[in-house]
Protein backbone atom coordinates (compact mmCIF):
# COMPACT_ATOMS: atom_id res chain seq x y z
CA UNK A 1 0.00 0.00 0.00
CA UNK A 2 1.11 3.55 -0.63
CA UNK A 3 0.04 6.77 1.08
CA UNK A 4 -1.82 9.27 -1.06
CA UNK A 5 -2.98 12.83 -0.62
CA UNK A 6 -5.24 13.88 2.20
CA UNK A 7 -8.99 13.61 1.84
CA UNK A 8 -11.17 16.74 2.06
CA UNK A 9 -11.49 16.07 5.81
CA UNK A 10 -7.67 16.01 6.09
CA UNK A 11 -7.80 12.41 7.31
CA UNK A 12 -4.92 10.40 5.83
CA UNK A 13 -6.12 7.70 3.49
CA UNK A 14 -4.35 4.82 1.86
CA UNK A 15 -4.82 3.68 -1.72
CA UNK A 16 -4.72 0.04 -2.76
CA UNK A 17 -4.64 -1.64 -6.14
CA UNK A 18 -7.97 -3.10 -7.18
CA UNK A 19 -10.08 -4.19 -10.12
CA UNK A 20 -13.26 -2.17 -10.39
CA UNK A 21 -16.23 -1.58 -12.63
CA UNK A 22 -15.98 2.17 -13.22
CA UNK A 23 -19.55 2.40 -14.49
CA UNK A 24 -22.63 0.23 -14.82
CA UNK A 25 -22.07 -2.68 -17.22
CA UNK A 26 -18.48 -1.58 -17.87
CA UNK A 27 -15.68 -4.15 -17.91
CA UNK A 28 -13.56 -4.27 -14.77
CA UNK A 29 -10.33 -2.30 -14.93
CA UNK A 30 -7.20 -2.08 -12.84
CA UNK A 31 -7.33 1.01 -10.64
CA UNK A 32 -6.76 2.20 -7.07
CA UNK A 33 -9.29 2.79 -4.31
CA UNK A 34 -8.97 4.27 -0.82
CA UNK A 35 -8.92 2.26 2.39
CA UNK A 36 -9.58 3.87 5.75
CA UNK A 37 -6.82 4.08 8.36
CA UNK A 38 -6.70 1.22 10.87
CA UNK A 39 -8.88 2.22 13.80
CA UNK A 40 -8.77 1.04 17.41
CA UNK A 41 -10.75 -2.12 16.72
CA UNK A 42 -9.76 -2.66 13.09
CA UNK A 43 -7.49 -5.15 11.40
CA UNK A 44 -5.64 -4.59 8.15
CA UNK A 45 -5.77 -7.68 5.97
CA UNK A 46 -3.44 -8.41 3.10
CA UNK A 47 -5.80 -10.21 0.75
CA UNK A 48 -4.30 -13.32 -0.76
CA UNK A 49 -7.29 -14.71 -2.66
CA UNK A 50 -10.77 -13.52 -3.61
CA UNK A 51 -13.50 -15.74 -4.99
CA UNK A 52 -15.80 -14.72 -7.82
CA UNK A 53 -19.46 -15.11 -6.88
CA UNK A 54 -22.29 -14.88 -9.43
CA UNK A 55 -23.69 -12.03 -7.34
CA UNK A 56 -20.52 -10.06 -8.14
CA UNK A 57 -21.52 -10.13 -11.78
CA UNK A 58 -25.11 -9.08 -11.07
CA UNK A 59 -23.95 -6.11 -9.01
CA UNK A 60 -21.05 -5.02 -11.23
CA UNK A 61 -23.46 -4.98 -14.17
CA UNK A 62 -26.09 -3.06 -12.20
CA UNK A 63 -28.63 -5.88 -12.52
CA UNK A 64 -29.64 -5.59 -8.88
CA UNK A 65 -29.20 -1.77 -8.93
CA UNK A 66 -28.73 0.91 -8.13
CA UNK A 67 -24.98 0.36 -7.94
CA UNK A 68 -22.29 2.63 -6.52
CA UNK A 69 -19.35 3.19 -8.88
CA UNK A 70 -16.49 2.67 -9.05
CA UNK A 71 -17.43 -0.75 -7.68
CA UNK A 72 -14.86 -3.26 -6.45
CA UNK A 73 -16.69 -6.59 -6.11
CA UNK A 74 -15.67 -9.52 -3.95
CA UNK A 75 -17.06 -10.94 -0.71
CA UNK A 76 -15.13 -14.20 -0.61
CA UNK A 77 -11.91 -12.92 0.92
CA UNK A 78 -9.02 -14.87 2.41
CA UNK A 79 -5.83 -13.28 3.63
CA UNK A 80 -3.43 -12.52 6.47
CA UNK A 81 -3.59 -9.86 9.17
CA UNK A 82 -0.73 -7.39 8.78
CA UNK A 83 -1.74 -4.69 11.28
CA UNK A 84 -4.10 -4.45 14.26
CA UNK A 85 -5.60 -1.53 16.11
CA UNK A 86 -4.68 -0.78 19.71
CA UNK A 87 -7.91 -2.29 21.06
CA UNK A 88 -7.98 -5.48 19.00
CA UNK A 89 -8.19 -8.71 21.01
CA UNK A 90 -9.53 -11.27 18.52
CA UNK A 91 -6.69 -11.31 15.99
CA UNK A 92 -2.95 -10.78 15.87
CA UNK A 93 -0.51 -10.02 13.06
CA UNK A 94 0.03 -13.14 10.98
CA UNK A 95 -3.41 -14.65 11.59
CA UNK A 96 -5.16 -16.24 8.61
CA UNK A 97 -8.57 -14.62 8.29
CA UNK A 98 -11.53 -14.35 5.98
CA UNK A 99 -14.19 -11.77 5.23
CA UNK A 100 -17.61 -12.63 3.89
CA UNK A 101 -20.65 -10.76 2.63
CA UNK A 102 -20.88 -8.08 5.32
CA UNK A 103 -18.38 -6.03 7.30
CA UNK A 104 -20.56 -4.38 9.93
CA UNK A 105 -24.00 -4.39 11.54
CA UNK A 106 -25.77 -2.24 14.09
CA UNK A 107 -24.83 -4.60 16.96
CA UNK A 108 -27.90 -3.52 18.93
CA UNK A 109 -31.00 -4.93 17.24
CA UNK A 110 -32.72 -8.19 18.13
CA UNK A 111 -31.07 -9.98 15.22
CA UNK A 112 -27.55 -8.82 16.04
CA UNK A 113 -27.97 -9.74 19.70
CA UNK A 114 -29.07 -13.22 18.59
CA UNK A 115 -25.95 -13.68 16.45
CA UNK A 116 -27.96 -13.30 13.25
CA UNK A 117 -26.15 -10.25 11.92
CA UNK A 118 -27.01 -11.25 8.36
CA UNK A 119 -30.59 -10.12 9.06
CA UNK A 120 -29.65 -6.72 10.50
CA UNK A 121 -31.62 -3.95 8.80
CA UNK A 122 -28.64 -1.61 9.15
CA UNK A 123 -25.80 -3.91 8.20
CA UNK A 124 -22.97 -2.94 5.86
CA UNK A 125 -22.20 -5.09 2.83
CA UNK A 126 -18.58 -5.77 1.98
CA UNK A 127 -18.93 -3.85 -1.27
CA UNK A 128 -21.45 -1.72 -3.14
CA UNK A 129 -22.55 -0.16 0.13
CA UNK A 130 -21.61 2.65 2.50
CA UNK A 131 -20.09 2.31 5.95
CA UNK A 132 -20.95 4.19 9.11
CA UNK A 133 -18.61 6.96 7.97
CA UNK A 134 -20.67 7.43 4.82
CA UNK A 135 -17.82 6.28 2.58
CA UNK A 136 -18.28 3.56 -0.07
CA UNK A 137 -17.22 0.02 0.75
CA UNK A 138 -14.91 -1.79 -1.67
CA UNK A 139 -14.61 -5.55 -1.89
CA UNK A 140 -12.02 -8.24 -2.24
CA UNK A 141 -10.75 -7.75 -5.79
CA UNK A 142 -7.99 -5.70 -4.18
CA UNK A 143 -4.73 -6.11 -2.32
CA UNK A 144 -5.83 -5.02 1.17
CA UNK A 145 -8.94 -4.35 3.22
CA UNK A 146 -9.56 -2.79 6.64
CA UNK A 147 -12.28 -4.51 8.68
CA UNK A 148 -13.58 -4.32 12.23
CA UNK A 149 -12.10 -7.28 14.12
CA UNK A 150 -15.54 -8.69 14.90
CA UNK A 151 -16.30 -9.25 11.22
CA UNK A 152 -13.08 -11.04 10.31
CA UNK A 153 -13.27 -14.83 10.60
CA UNK A 154 -10.46 -17.13 11.66
CA UNK A 155 -9.45 -19.55 8.88
CA UNK A 156 -8.16 -22.77 10.47
CA UNK A 157 -4.87 -24.22 9.32
CA UNK A 158 -6.69 -27.24 7.90
CA UNK A 159 -7.86 -25.26 4.87
CA UNK A 160 -5.64 -23.76 2.18
CA UNK A 161 -6.32 -20.04 1.77
CA UNK A 162 -7.20 -20.29 -1.92
CA UNK A 163 -9.72 -23.08 -1.26
CA UNK A 164 -11.04 -21.24 1.80
CA UNK A 165 -11.97 -18.01 0.02
CA UNK A 166 -15.22 -19.34 -1.55
CA UNK A 167 -16.32 -20.71 1.81
CA UNK A 168 -16.99 -17.15 2.97
CA UNK A 169 -20.04 -16.98 0.69
CA UNK A 170 -20.66 -20.25 -1.16
CA UNK A 171 -19.70 -22.36 1.85
CA UNK A 172 -21.87 -20.59 4.41
CA UNK A 173 -24.74 -20.23 1.94
CA UNK A 174 -24.99 -24.03 1.80
CA UNK A 175 -23.94 -24.82 5.36
CA UNK A 176 -26.64 -22.62 6.88
CA UNK A 177 -29.74 -24.39 5.46
CA UNK A 178 -28.15 -27.83 5.84
CA UNK A 179 -27.46 -27.13 9.50
CA UNK A 180 -30.79 -25.41 10.17
CA UNK A 181 -32.86 -28.26 8.71
CA UNK A 182 -30.58 -30.82 10.33
CA UNK A 183 -29.03 -32.70 7.46
CA UNK A 184 -27.32 -35.74 8.94
CA UNK A 185 -27.47 -39.51 9.38
CA UNK A 186 -30.82 -40.91 8.39
CA UNK A 187 -31.72 -37.87 6.29
CA UNK A 188 -32.06 -37.89 2.52
CA UNK A 189 -30.86 -34.62 1.04
CA UNK A 190 -30.96 -33.44 -2.57
CA UNK A 191 -28.84 -30.63 -3.98
CA UNK A 192 -30.30 -29.01 -7.10
CA UNK A 193 -27.54 -27.70 -9.35
CA UNK A 194 -23.88 -28.70 -9.46
CA UNK A 195 -22.09 -25.36 -9.67
CA UNK A 196 -20.19 -23.05 -7.36
CA UNK A 197 -22.86 -23.34 -4.68
CA UNK A 198 -24.05 -26.85 -5.38
CA UNK A 199 -20.67 -28.55 -5.21
CA UNK A 200 -20.20 -27.10 -1.71
CA UNK A 201 -23.62 -28.45 -0.73
CA UNK A 202 -22.61 -31.93 -1.83
CA UNK A 203 -19.40 -31.84 0.19
CA UNK A 204 -20.97 -30.41 3.33
CA UNK A 205 -24.10 -32.60 3.33
CA UNK A 206 -21.94 -35.68 2.82
CA UNK A 207 -19.67 -34.67 5.71
CA UNK A 208 -22.76 -34.18 7.90
CA UNK A 209 -23.66 -37.81 7.27
CA UNK A 210 -26.71 -37.39 5.04
CA UNK A 211 -27.52 -39.54 2.02
CA UNK A 212 -26.86 -37.07 -0.79
CA UNK A 213 -28.42 -36.90 -4.23
CA UNK A 214 -27.51 -34.39 -6.94
CA UNK A 215 -30.29 -33.21 -9.23
CA UNK A 216 -28.63 -31.66 -12.26
CA UNK A 217 -29.95 -30.77 -15.68
CA UNK A 218 -27.81 -33.47 -17.28
CA UNK A 219 -25.42 -36.23 -16.26
CA UNK A 220 -22.42 -34.25 -17.55
CA UNK A 221 -21.03 -33.68 -14.03
CA UNK A 222 -21.98 -37.05 -12.61
CA UNK A 223 -18.41 -38.23 -12.07
CA UNK A 224 -17.58 -35.03 -10.20
CA UNK A 225 -20.69 -35.28 -8.06
CA UNK A 226 -19.93 -38.84 -6.99
CA UNK A 227 -16.29 -37.96 -6.36
CA UNK A 228 -17.27 -35.05 -4.11
CA UNK A 229 -19.55 -37.17 -1.96
CA UNK A 230 -22.91 -37.68 -3.67
CA UNK A 231 -24.50 -41.09 -3.30
CA UNK A 232 -26.77 -40.64 -6.32
CA UNK A 233 -26.92 -38.39 -9.38
CA UNK A 234 -29.98 -37.79 -11.55
CA UNK A 235 -30.75 -35.67 -14.63
CA UNK A 236 -33.75 -33.39 -14.16
CA UNK A 237 -34.17 -33.22 -17.94
CA UNK A 238 -35.38 -36.83 -17.75
CA UNK A 239 -39.08 -36.97 -16.75
CA UNK A 240 -38.48 -40.40 -15.23
CA UNK A 241 -36.41 -38.73 -12.51
CA UNK A 242 -39.49 -37.08 -11.00
CA UNK A 243 -41.48 -40.30 -11.13
CA UNK A 244 -38.72 -42.45 -9.66
CA UNK A 245 -37.86 -40.06 -6.82
CA UNK A 246 -41.37 -38.97 -5.82
CA UNK A 247 -41.70 -38.67 -2.04
CA UNK A 248 -38.00 -39.40 -1.41
CA UNK A 249 -36.31 -36.42 0.28
CA UNK A 250 -36.38 -34.84 3.71
CA UNK A 251 -34.63 -31.74 2.40
CA UNK A 252 -33.96 -30.29 -1.03
CA UNK A 253 -31.64 -27.30 -1.39
CA UNK A 254 -31.93 -25.54 -4.73
CA UNK A 255 -28.92 -23.51 -5.84
CA UNK A 256 -30.17 -22.56 -9.31
CA UNK A 257 -31.17 -19.05 -10.32
CA UNK A 258 -33.54 -20.12 -13.09
CA UNK A 259 -37.27 -20.60 -12.49
CA UNK A 260 -38.14 -24.18 -11.56
CA UNK A 261 -41.32 -26.20 -11.78
CA UNK A 262 -41.71 -25.94 -8.02
CA UNK A 263 -44.68 -28.27 -7.91
CA UNK A 264 -42.55 -30.99 -9.50
CA UNK A 265 -39.72 -30.50 -7.01
CA UNK A 266 -42.10 -30.35 -4.05
CA UNK A 267 -43.39 -33.70 -5.25
CA UNK A 268 -39.97 -35.16 -4.51
CA UNK A 269 -40.33 -34.37 -0.80
CA UNK A 270 -41.55 -36.65 1.95
CA UNK A 271 -44.44 -35.34 4.04
CA UNK A 272 -43.18 -32.36 6.09
CA UNK A 273 -40.15 -32.10 3.85
CA UNK A 274 -38.49 -28.78 3.03
CA UNK A 275 -37.47 -27.24 -0.28
CA UNK A 276 -35.00 -24.46 0.58
CA UNK A 277 -33.90 -21.98 -2.06
CA UNK A 278 -30.52 -20.29 -2.04
CA UNK A 279 -30.62 -19.54 -5.76
CA UNK A 280 -32.71 -16.48 -6.58
CA UNK A 281 -34.52 -16.39 -9.94
CA UNK A 282 -35.24 -12.83 -11.04
CA UNK A 283 -38.68 -13.78 -12.34
CA UNK A 284 -41.75 -14.29 -10.11
CA UNK A 285 -42.82 -17.90 -9.68
CA UNK A 286 -46.21 -19.56 -9.94
CA UNK A 287 -47.18 -22.13 -7.36
CA UNK A 288 -50.28 -24.22 -6.80
CA UNK A 289 -50.64 -24.21 -3.01
CA UNK A 290 -51.94 -27.77 -2.98
CA UNK A 291 -48.35 -28.84 -3.72
CA UNK A 292 -47.53 -27.50 -0.25
CA UNK A 293 -50.74 -28.35 1.57
CA UNK A 294 -50.75 -32.01 0.59
CA UNK A 295 -48.01 -33.38 2.79
CA UNK A 296 -47.53 -30.29 5.00
CA UNK A 297 -44.49 -29.32 2.96
CA UNK A 298 -42.41 -26.16 3.25
CA UNK A 299 -41.06 -23.92 0.49
CA UNK A 300 -38.37 -21.79 2.12
CA UNK A 301 -35.55 -19.38 1.42
CA UNK A 302 -32.13 -19.20 3.01
CA UNK A 303 -29.30 -16.72 2.80
CA UNK A 304 -25.91 -16.63 4.49
CA UNK A 305 -25.20 -17.16 8.19
CA UNK A 306 -24.14 -14.82 10.95
CA UNK A 307 -20.60 -14.41 12.23
CA UNK A 308 -20.80 -17.27 14.75
CA UNK A 309 -22.32 -19.70 12.25
CA UNK A 310 -19.78 -18.72 9.60
CA UNK A 311 -16.97 -19.50 12.03
CA UNK A 312 -18.70 -22.78 12.86
CA UNK A 313 -18.77 -23.58 9.14
CA UNK A 314 -15.08 -22.84 8.71
CA UNK A 315 -14.19 -25.04 11.68
CA UNK A 316 -16.44 -27.81 10.35
CA UNK A 317 -14.85 -27.65 6.90
CA UNK A 318 -11.35 -27.73 8.38
CA UNK A 319 -12.15 -30.73 10.54
CA UNK A 320 -13.53 -32.61 7.51
CA UNK A 321 -10.89 -31.52 5.00
CA UNK A 322 -13.37 -29.52 2.95
CA UNK A 323 -12.34 -26.70 0.63
CA UNK A 324 -13.85 -25.37 -2.57
CA UNK A 325 -12.98 -26.84 -5.96
CA UNK A 326 -11.25 -23.89 -7.58
CA UNK A 327 -9.63 -22.53 -10.71
CA UNK A 328 -7.11 -19.80 -9.86
CA UNK A 329 -6.90 -16.81 -12.21
CA UNK A 330 -4.89 -13.62 -12.59
CA UNK A 331 -6.37 -10.16 -12.27
CA UNK A 332 -6.40 -9.52 -16.00
CA UNK A 333 -8.57 -12.63 -16.45
CA UNK A 334 -11.48 -11.36 -14.36
CA UNK A 335 -13.63 -10.19 -17.27
CA UNK A 336 -13.05 -13.47 -19.10
CA UNK A 337 -13.96 -15.33 -15.92
CA UNK A 338 -17.25 -13.42 -15.70
CA UNK A 339 -18.21 -14.62 -19.16
CA UNK A 340 -17.23 -18.16 -18.31
CA UNK A 341 -19.35 -18.09 -15.13
CA UNK A 342 -22.34 -17.03 -17.21
CA UNK A 343 -21.61 -19.90 -19.60
CA UNK A 344 -21.30 -22.37 -16.67
CA UNK A 345 -17.71 -22.97 -17.76
CA UNK A 346 -16.02 -23.33 -14.38
CA UNK A 347 -15.47 -26.24 -12.03
CA UNK A 348 -16.39 -24.90 -9.64
CA UNK A 349 -15.28 -21.50 -8.38
CA UNK A 350 -12.91 -18.92 -9.83
CA UNK A 351 -10.47 -17.52 -7.30
CA UNK A 352 -8.32 -14.46 -8.01
CA UNK A 353 -4.70 -14.59 -6.92
CA UNK A 354 -4.51 -11.00 -5.68
CA UNK A 355 -0.72 -10.97 -6.00
CA UNK A 356 -1.39 -10.58 -9.73
CA UNK A 357 -3.48 -7.40 -9.42
Automatic annotation (TrEMBL):
Keywords: Metal-binding, Oxidoreductase, Zinc
Cofactor: Zn(2+)
GO molecular function term, any single one: alcohol dehydrogenase (NADP+) activity
Name by which UniProt lists this protein: alcohol dehydrogenase (NADP(+))
Enzyme category, top tier: oxidoreductase
Reaction catalysed by this enzyme: a primary alcohol + NADP(+) = an aldehyde + NADPH + H(+)
EC number: 1.1.1.2
Pfam family, one: ADH_N
Superkingdom to which the source organism belongs: Bacteria
